[in-house]
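seq as requested:
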Amino acid sequence: MTNAQHSHPHGAHHEQHLRSSDFISDIVIGMSDGLTVPFALAAGLSGAVASSTLVVTAGIAEIVAGSIAMGLGGYLAGRTEADHYESERRREVLEVETVPEREKEEVREVFADMGLPLDLQIAIADELAKDKTKWIDFMMKYELGLEEPDPNRATKSALTIGLAYVTGGLVPLAPYFFNSVPQEALLYSCGLTLICLFVFGYFKSKVTGQPPVGGAFKVMFIGALAAAAAFGVAKLF
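struct tokens:
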């Protein structure tokens, strides 16, 4: 079995891991804002209006606007990442063409940092230089620390963040669909949303390697604080 065949499964696994991290990150971004912002808005309006219909209307408008804004932010971030990668790759292509000896020296420096002897550094650099595409791939990854982004990353990110925001936003709004008295609906909304914030915080912390229970309480506390502040301000004015 060739070296390429040996390395392919590892590369596929790494790529899959990278994509999956991006996906989880986008869900966390969309869901955390989706649960918190509409919850605070609904709580604030509950202290100021007499009909749940107004809360639902304003809540849906906010969810639509918020999901579009968040999704657009995700799209632009994805495009920026792709543009940065392409810009750096073009620069590496130019340097390989115009100053190949300096680029070979940079390859040798990478392997010197790994502790390889000089003769092996030179042999690897010379061998790598025979295939310019692999040479440039190597420089992008090991000199600049850049992974080639998924070409559909921006679109996927926008959709994932937007849908996660909508999903999160509908949770605190749901009780207002079934209860016409906003103050009563708020009680159900608080209970439902705080449970969801706790569960979300638990899994978010577990995925990111933080203490899950502590993270769950932290996320729940932030959501409760935002809602209480919005409700208090609405009551004052």
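The first helix runs from residue 3 to 46.
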